[in-house]
Amino acid sequence: MKRSFEGTAVGAPDTRASADPSLKLLTAMLDGAEQAVVAFRPANGKIVYANGAFASLTGIAHDQLTAKDLFFCLGKAAAQEVRIALQPLLSGEVDRVPTGFDLEIPLHPPRCVDASFTMVRLTPRRPLVCAYLWDATERSDRDRRTKGRLRFLEGVIDGSLLSIIVSDLRGKILIFNKGARNLLGYDQREVVGQKYTHELYEANAGQEVMALLKGSTHGGPGNLDRFQTILIGKSRARIPVWLTAHMLYDEQGKETGTVAYIQDVREVIEMERRLEEVQMQLIHADKMASLGKLAAGVAHEINNPLGGILLFGGLLLEDTDFADPRREDLDRIVQEARRCKEIVNSLLDFAHQRKRYHEPVDLNQAVEQCLQLLGSKAIFYNIEVKRELCDPLPLITGNPSQIKQVFTNVVLNAVDAMDGEGVLTIRSEHDEAAHEVLVSFMDTGPGIDPRIRGRIFEPFFTTKEQGKGTGLGLSLSYNIIRMHRGDIRVRCPSGGGTCFLVAFQEAEEDSGPGEEAD
Fold first, then answer.
1. What are the pLDDT digits (tens) for 107-122?
2. Residue-wise pLDDT tens digits, 79-100
3. In 3-state terms, what secondary structure has residue 71?
4. Do 402 and 503 sit in the same domain of this protein?
5. Which of 427, 457, 423, 422 is nearest to 439 (CA)?
6. Is residue 3 part of a domain?
7. Residue finishing a domain among 264, 292, 325
8. What is the helix (H) or strand (E) element at residue 80, kind and residue range?
9. Quick check: 10 pLDDT over 50?
């Protein structure tokens, strides 16, 4: 026998219900349930049954729900959402519709409701819709607070200057903050959920990091403190970084993923390199100053006896007949004494003992005069000289003879390095941003051994055979350029050859002739 709510008024006793023990039991169970239950006609929304929990949820007295419109009880906003949710159920597409909505009742605090609607066909012509509703306000507030905290933490992570990468246990990237995007050049959509952390490391560094993270040598199990490694950016650039990483655990202490904090150390490395370079320059300058004082003292002591040797050697040579076999020996004595005199003069220049006067100098003209002087030498016969001179070129302030001496030393070294055959390219240019005038000398020789590259400006250091060089050419050139407040640099390209670059500050407009400053 079918039972129906037909004719049952909400809140009023029903004689058939009281006559049927099973229906009475069912009504008592629904009335005492904590879950809100309501049955209504889908055509007009008329409530045919509602329990006490529904009355409490809507704020309407239980005995006043009789024949009420369900949609009126829910309020305008919630009613609209329920009507839309019921459409698949009323069309017969589905048997049950879950939904959720905000319930706003006048003079009552707003509530968040989860609901499930089911079609009940007790009679073919007059179906009912049975609705089960749960007050989900607490859970919704908790979820809202949780989402707020998550958004807050995401903002903190994304705004960090450090690069932060969070991944699961398989290494799939879950969080890739702004710092990481700026460092590696990837867009978030290219990485999150798409890439694994080991793809960002050079070679097998990713596996090494995970092994160290699970070991105890760098901060203990689950921790990795300040480990230096190499990351590969989107452009395939190698990026040295400091890496600090930690394992992530759930409430049961089970590993769930890793978080890595990454610091770009390229600027630190470059700063350390510059500091080391400056330190070496200071050591070199101190060494040059000490050697300069020593050289000046030795040169002055040697100059007097050398003058006597040259004087009396020259007199003996004039009084000796050309047929005398001793004349050749006397001539050799005078030549060697003159060579010693030249070395002493170089020592005095190195020690900065002789005053020089500065004036405006055209470096292009100095290059041309240097080449005119050397061009007639036999060692230049198989040398091709390429001039790439910038015209016009700003003037610099300096001593023309000393600058030509530097250019001559560099050119002769280049020709010697090419063993008399090759190409020498001389280029001048103006660096407007740095206010520098640059002259570079590039040869096609074998280059300079990296093991001795740091010593080429040391006094008396030479790679030439004994008797072919004094080791003062480049050291003297270095000292002259420093006195001109310039710089001389050397590099050896990977393809071979050597390039010496001489840099001077361009002359100021009101500069004129003057004595060199000590």
1. 778 889 999 999 888 7
2. 999 999 999 998 888 989 999 9
3. helix
4. yes
5. 427
6. no
7. 264
8. helix 76-90
9. no
